[in-house]
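Following up on my earlier thread - several people asked me to post the actual chain instead of describing it. Fair enough. Here it is, all 214 residues.
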Amino acid sequence: MALTLSVDPGVPEDRPLVLAAEVIQAGGVIVYPTETLYGIGANALDPEAIAKVQAIKRRTDKKPMLVLVATHAAAEDLALAISPTAHSLMDAFWPGPLTLVFSAAEAVPSALRPEGNTIGIRVPSSPLCLKLLKLCGCPIISTSANLSGAVTHRTVGEIRKTLHAGVDLYLDAGPLPESSPSTIVDVTVTPPRVLRAGAVDINRLRSVVPDIRS
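Reply from S.P.:
Thanks for posting it. Predicted structure:
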């Protein structure tokens, strides 16, 4: 049975995150809290780890999975190019619940971009996620901790009942409050286009990019 460790998402202790980072570095899979919901995490540059996450979610569609990074510089390593408009959105809303879709660099595994040559990236505002990313030294997959198409649960207890085998470690921050998912914006097109409404509303986006499409 997978180990469960309690964590404080606001002031995370070192020990559980060091163990979580070791699992990720070894090609394993964790469930962890973000600022919006519980996610399934793994090394986003490891094709075998990506395949494990897809199997856990029983995912058969070709939608790309989102990736968390710790810094703007780490995003630049995964994106083929970053436009001035994209930089403006990054400066305004990162760290935070805004995912930007870029053209993917060659370093991005094809399993992360099955529908084309794009990748969704964000820098989270969660202190726990940022600390975990720095300990791992790699980008981390961020996909909701549920079976594909199923209800998204807000407690580790409920998540364990649905995911069953495949997860190596759970980081339990208790029940997460109801919240919107990250907003997703495609910055490969001009003007940028909102692909999913979420925690960053259109009015806030338009205060930075007035011609953004919804």
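Residues 14-25 form the longest helix (12 residues). That should answer part of your original question.
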